[in-house]
């Protein structure tokens, strides 16, 4: 199972695409109709889809998996009685699978038989997405749900977050104990720490400073720098998230505490709590489809 892409709808999609390609450091993959597809250096055909819309919302977060895993998901999602339907992807890379709505509206799409593309050179391109984090009213309940209904595993719990993995990477998603449901942030995997630092410099050239970072997290131990994108959401340069074994023992909030005044391993930067919180309100989840049985094959 791999996290592949996020599909957003928003006003002024072309301007958002111009920011992500011209400043953030992505490459344009393709424009189909009203949707801009942006890629990184890795083999995924795109990482971010931006569809023109009157309102901003998250259409889906997409994972790719083997056929057998998809069949398991159909069974567990049906058993959990979550709203879901079969899908055939019209996005670059194609594929077929299912889309599932979690308890607080989070829309996760699982595709198999997707195609990949040749990697491209570019030391300032993100390689891929490394995690998508959501805000939740009850992050604990969603952590339990995603384990039972999707076979993901909770890696760690902190005072603020429930971190969840779907492969050996410490987390591909997480649920923040926010008191509301929305997109928390999108994290891009950079090739190394130098690429993160160059990214911070590149944004500084355009008058943008991190809303938090650079720093190194506790759980996952990844390096981070968060920015508030001009088109609304919180986006992150990240690198070097830990890999964990199958039998990794989840930490509890009391295992992940900081000394007074610290909220990361380095302690070198301030966090713009209010700015980040406002940006996290921008993209909510919206389902524009009706549930259907998952055992019916799509034409
Ligand atoms: Fe992050």
Q: Can you walk me through this structure?
A:
The chain is built from five helices and 17 strands. The mean pLDDT is 97. Strands 1, 2, 3, 4, 5, 6, 7, 8 and 17 form a nine-stranded mixed β-sheet that branches. The protein has an eight-stranded mixed β-sheet with strand order 10-11-12-9-13-16-15-14. The protein starts with a strand and ends in a 14-residue tail after the last strand. It is globular. Helix 2 crosses helix 3. Helix content is 20%, strand content 34%. It has two domains: 116 residues, 2,3-Dihydroxybiphenyl 1,2-Dioxygenase, domain 1 (Roll), CATH 3.10.180; 155 residues, 2,3-Dihydroxybiphenyl 1,2-Dioxygenase, domain 1, CATH 3.10.180. The chain has 299 residues and is of the alpha/beta class. Fe (ii) ion binds next to strand 9, strand 13 and strand 16.
Class based on secondary structure composition and strand pairing? alpha/beta
Give Rg in angstroms: 18 Å
Poorly predicted runs are none
Could you give a short account of the major beta sheet? 9 strands, mixed
Give me the CATH architecture of the largest domain, please.
Roll
CATH H-tier superfamily of the largest domain: 2,3-Dihydroxybiphenyl 1,2-Dioxygenase, domain 1
Oligomer: single chain
Number of helical elements = 5
**H-E string:** EHEEEEHEEEEHEEEEHEEEHE
Topology, number of strands: 17
Report the end-to-end length measured between terminal Cα atoms.
24 Å
CATH-defined topology of the largest domain: 2,3-Dihydroxybiphenyl 1,2-Dioxygenase, domain 1
User: CATH first level of the largest domain: which class?
Assistant: Alpha Beta
Note the overall shape: globular
Task: Indicate how many domains the architecture comprises.
Answer: 2
Percentage of residues in strands: 25-35%
Which ligands occur here? Answer: fe (ii) ion
Mean pLDDT: 97
- Percentage of residues assigned to helices: 10-25%
């Amino acid at each position: 199972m791999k996290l592949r892409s996020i599909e957003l709808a928003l006003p002024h999609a072309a301007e958002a695409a111009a920011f992500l390609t011209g400043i953030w450091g992505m490459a344009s993959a393709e424009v189909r109709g009203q949707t801009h597809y942006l890629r990184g250096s890795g083999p995924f055909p795109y990482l971010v889809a931006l569809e023109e819309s009157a309102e901003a919302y998250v259409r889906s977060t997409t994972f790719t998996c083997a056929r057998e895993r998809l069949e398991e998901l159909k069974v567990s999602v049906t058993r959990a009685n979550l709203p879901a339907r079969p899908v055939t992807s019209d996005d670059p890379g194609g594929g077929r699978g299912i889309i599932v709505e979690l308890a607080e509206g989070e829309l996760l799409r699982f595709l198999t038989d997707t195609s990949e593309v040749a990697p491209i050179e570019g030391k300032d391109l993100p390689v891929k997405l490394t995690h998508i984090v959501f805000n939740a009213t009850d992050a604990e309940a969603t952590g339990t749900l995603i384990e039972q209904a999707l076979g993901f595993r909770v890696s760690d719990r902190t005072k603020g977050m429930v971190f969840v993995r779907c492969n050996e990477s410490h987390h591909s998603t997480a649920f923040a104990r926010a008191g509301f449901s929305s997109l928390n942030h999108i994290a891009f995997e950079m090739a190394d720490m130098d690429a993160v630092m160059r990214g911070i410099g590149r944004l500084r050239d355009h008058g943008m400073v991190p809303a938090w970072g650079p720093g190194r997290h506790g759980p996952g131990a990844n390096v981070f720098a968060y920015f508030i994108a001009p088109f609304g959401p919180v986006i992150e340069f990240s690198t070097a998230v830990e890999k964990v074994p199958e039998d990794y023992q989840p930490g509890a909030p009391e295992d992940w505490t900081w000394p007074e005044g610290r909220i990361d391993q380095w302690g070198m930067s301030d966090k713009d709590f209010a700015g980040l919180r406002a940006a996290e309100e921008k993209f909510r989840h919206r389902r524009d489809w009706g549930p259907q049985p998952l055992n019916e094959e799509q034409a």
